[in-house]
Batch of 2 targets.
Target 1
Amino acid sequence: MKIFCPYKVKNIYEAVINMTHDLEKIKHDFLTKLHSLTKEADILNLKSEFTGKTGVVSELLKSLKDMNPEERKSFGPKANELKDFITEQCSLFLAKIEIEEINKKLALDRIDISMTENIQAKSIKSGGYHPRTIIQQEIEDIFLSMGFDVLDGPHIEDEFHNFEALNIPADHPARDMQDTFWFHDPQKTPKETKKYLLRTHTSNIQVRGMLSRKPPFRFIAPGVVFRSERTDASHEMVFTQLEGMMVGKDISVSNLIYFMKTILKEIFKRDVEVRLRPGFFPFVEPGFELDISCLICGGKGCSVCKQIGWVELLPCGMIHPNVLKAGGIDPEEYNGFAFGLGLDRLVMMRYGIDDIRHLQSGDLRFNSQFKLF
Ligand code: FA5
């Protein structure tokens, strides 16, 4: 571009007209070029071409020093205005390009979450909750709504919490009711060391719960338990129980029966046939076995109920005074009830599962039949 030269004009008016004309021309030239550009680098080059050190406008500004004061006064602000205009226009165009690029990227990365019927969606396997998790969460919600806490406890337990504090001293025949996996310190004889085991029931959490709170209280404690047992349609070596305990003043067997009936009604959403019979557990007195009419065979007899039509589901009873004492509670002042629900068997009854071993199988064809996330 030809740069305006102030010496060649004859008078101040002619000079100003020429100068203004040149500035207009530069502006027009700049805008024409700018509107044809789409890339960031090209715009930066254009900016440098006009306002860089040796750019057209910069040269004009340098020439101010050779002008007389009147020319400078009229021309200087206009030249500076043009420089600002060019800088501003370049910034606007750069911002516009940046936004366009971001939008392009977003359009490419967009995930259609409503997409179900295409190849991409079909290749993704959706997960689901294990049926035991579904039932456990339902039961926890029911008990939470009735003011119970939900507690947890260790899987590896000592003799005191799993047996002694539950009124089952060493050599008590009741220890044989639950075939136990023991840990032994190979360096020591069993007599020298405190014995550890994999808990055989969730009743260990009764003891820990009592020792860590003051009555009145009520809590449940779901969890895995371990027994060295032969497996069949209704027996596993690793299975789940859900313990419950309520301690307060003047609690009666009718309170116990009310809570047991409520929980079964909530879970099955209908009345199910149950029977209560005497049961022996050293930690409750009196003790009961609550059986449910087998929902797999409708009470006719099958491998799950061992042909008797009833499934042992919910042993329970009034807490033995010795257990309250071991938990630091005065049995003269307080009493209560406890229960130990066989959670896996409840899951089987609810979904009509005819073999407990399906629950642990890890077979996705089995698991995927239940409610999805
Ligand atoms: C107990 O474990 C007692 N701790 C329960 C209890 C707590 C009674 C509080 C009184 C007061 P039991 O061994 O019967 O009791 O087991 C309780 C329930 O767990 C059974 O009714 C049954 O539903 C389930 N169960 C027992 N053994 C197995 C097994 N091998 N596989 C699957 N479920 C089992």
Note: Strands lie at 149-150, 156-158, 182-183, 196-198, 217-226, 238-248, 274-278, 284-293, 310-319, 335-342.
Target 2
Amino acid sequence: MWWVWQVGFRVSENRQGGADLHAHTSSSDGVLTPGEMVLAAVEAELQAVAITDHDTLAGIGAARAEAQQQPIDLVAGIEISVRLRNLEIHLLGLFIDESCSQLRQLSLSSRRARRERAERMVERARSLRLDLSMQHIVQVAGSATIGRPHVAAAMVAAGIVPSPEIAFRRYLGTGRPLAVPRELIGAPEAIGIIHRAGGIAVVAHPGSSRVRATLLEELSAAGLDAIEVRHPRHGRQREQLLLEQCRRLGLLPSGGSDFHGPGRGTAKLGEYRVPMDWYQPLCRQAQERKAQAVAKE
Ligand code: AMP
Ligand code: ZN
Ligand code: FE
Ligand code: FE
């Protein structure tokens, strides 16, 4: 990846152009439909946007169809919850081929595991004498993969808590009574599947997941391609530290807003965009991964 050092890691403040490589649609716990997300990205004057729903590929087809009508690149992505030692961390697969059978299998089994976790959350809620049912949750989630934000919204709808924030604080946040663990795929295995789908593996928000330097080394040894350096949960200082880790480990920098919809979460779409001289090396790395995936077939 010698060319990275030639383009350098300039931190630019572009409001126009650039790429936002982390966004959630209504296929997982976001608000906008995939088509609306593409239009919002055009409105934000992005040159590229990645759709990275939690553990599902369901939104990519519709996003692609809309992007074909628009002056924007659509990066097909997924955010996979994985296990690294005893931690849950998130990996982004970017530039993936959503028809890859192993990746589809992974998303189907995660979908099932998320549903089963929601069922156990309901059982626990009942044991706490809270009036929460699967119907409440399914009403909120529709066909999306069920995440804790859906459960939080269902708890508000059922009158258990006044707001989603309070649902997380009292019940759903880490260490709280309804924070039920679910089975997670190991990080190296997930990286392998992303590569087989012709994509690149990016560790998401390592700052907020407390992924320390030794764990970055472990991920790097397993074939990680990039670090999500720019993210709403990372301050400037964290960004600089992560850029140093990129240099040290020979990884590329990536970034995005982790946008969940207007008024949701901390960032607007495009707010944490990365410049094209971060985006283009990621594209080239994906081309290499695709060539390797084809060679292995
Ligand atoms: P899940 O993947 O189902 O475990 O849910 C994780 C999602 O819940 C994250 O992507 C966030 O959007 C949201 N989330 C996690 N912790 C909190 C919190 N303390 N307050 C609000 N939302 C949260
Ligand atoms: Zn989310
Ligand atoms: Fe995440
Ligand atoms: Fe995310």
Note: Residues 29, 54, 81, 147-149, 168, 173, 260 surround adenosine monophosphate (ligand 1) (CB under 6 Å).
